[in-house]
Design goal:
G protein-coupled receptor activity; about 5% strand; Rhopdopsin 7-helix transmembrane proteins; GPCR_Rhodpsn; mainly alpha; receptor; three-stranded mixed sheet; Olfact_rcpt
Length: about 325
């Protein structure tokens, strides 16, 4: 029988540094990055929601991506900022589990959404004649709902597996937020089976979505490789920027989760790539490169301009075989 009095009631997050000077430097940099995430993604959401010209499925999905990026950073960053400024590193056990749940909920939902966005690009470029029917508004809502549902199921499984483990000390986490790899090492039990279950859950989702994304962009490049028109170079540029964004997000996740937690140490600085850097870069990579979005933000009125998606699909589309 487990002694409840010996259960851990709080964890100590070591954070990014114990040096006061570095803590202030990290606070400044992270606050700046968080501000950019909030402002950039909120600007995109407001722009897409208020401009009728940006009503294509691509911009609908990008709007959802911006919302997920805000949620992803807000799960971890505010508490990190408070800890860096005040030096308070303790987090209640329940708060730690809640942070772990929402981090995986939002993170895996974003993985699924990025995969849907790659499917949207593939359909627009490789099957332009069927695009309107395949990516109808109802289908887009259903795909986004499926992304959220998939993220919830994944995160619920992770959290339930964690809650079943006993934690009786030590309670020091070598990270700046609660996540599966650093927390599971503190369990007072044999966690080998649980680690493999979690690795197969999180790791295979990360790897599977990434492979689907790569395959879709390979098919897109194969579709346009024989043409060298201006529209095709635009398509290649768009695909290249999307590949850079998904690589920035997926590779650290694959490195972190596609293995049992105890096999190799996980760098907290690697985790910063997908919790802070990637949400900050997504507005620049995905949306702010679009001339239609920039024109809308600047208040330009140009009724003859159609969303970038249709420009791309018309410029190098061929009849469906």
């Amino acid at each position: 029988m487990e002694d409840n009095s010996s259960r851990v009631t709080e964890f100590i997050l070591l954070g990014l540094s114990d040096t006061r000077g570095l803590q202030l430097l990290f606070f400044t940099l992270i606050l700046l990055a968080y501000t950019m995430v909030l402002l950039g993604n909120l600007l995109i959401i407001v722009t897409v929601r208020t401009d009728p010209k940006l009503s294509s499925p691509m911009y609908f999905l990008l709007c959802n991506l911006s919302f997920l990026d805000i949620c992803c950073t807000s799960v971890t960053v505010p508490r990190v900022l408070v800890a860096l400024l005040s030096g308070h590193k303790a987090i209640a056990f329940e708060g730690c589990m809640a942070q772990l749940f929402f981090l995986h909920f939002v993170g895996s939902s974003e993985m699924f959404l990025l995969t849907v966005m790659a499917f949207d690009r593939y359909t627009a470029i490789c099957r332009p004649l069927h695009y309107t029917a395949i990516m109808a508004r109802g289908a887009c809502w259903a795909l986004v709902a499926a992304c959220w549902a998939g993220g919830f199921i994944h995160s619920a499984v992770q959290t339930v597996l964690m809650l079943r483990l006993p934690f009786c000390g030590p309670n020091t986490i070598n990270s700046y937020f609660c996540d599966v790899p650093p927390v599971i090492r503190l369990a007072c039990a044999d966690t080998a089976l649980t680690e493999w279950l979690m690795a197969s859950n999180s790791g295979l989702i990360s790897l599977g979505c990434f492979l689907v994304l790569v395959a879709s962009y390979v098919l897109i490049l194969a579709k346009v490789r024989a043409r060298v028109s201006q529209g095709n170079w635009k398509a290649l540029s768009t695909c290249a920027s999307h590949v850079m964004a998904v690589t920035l997000f997926f590779m650290p996740c694959i490195f972190t989760y596609l293995r049992p937690a105890g096999t190799l140490p996980t760098s907290k600085y690697v985790c910063a790539i997908y919790t802070i850097l990637s949400p900050m870069m997504n507005p620049l990579i995905y949306t702010l490169r679009s001339s239609e979005v920039k024109e809308s933000m600047l208040g330009w009125q140009n009724p003859g301009v159609h969303p970038e998606l249709h420009l791309e699909s018309r410029s190098y589309s061929t009849p469906t075989q």
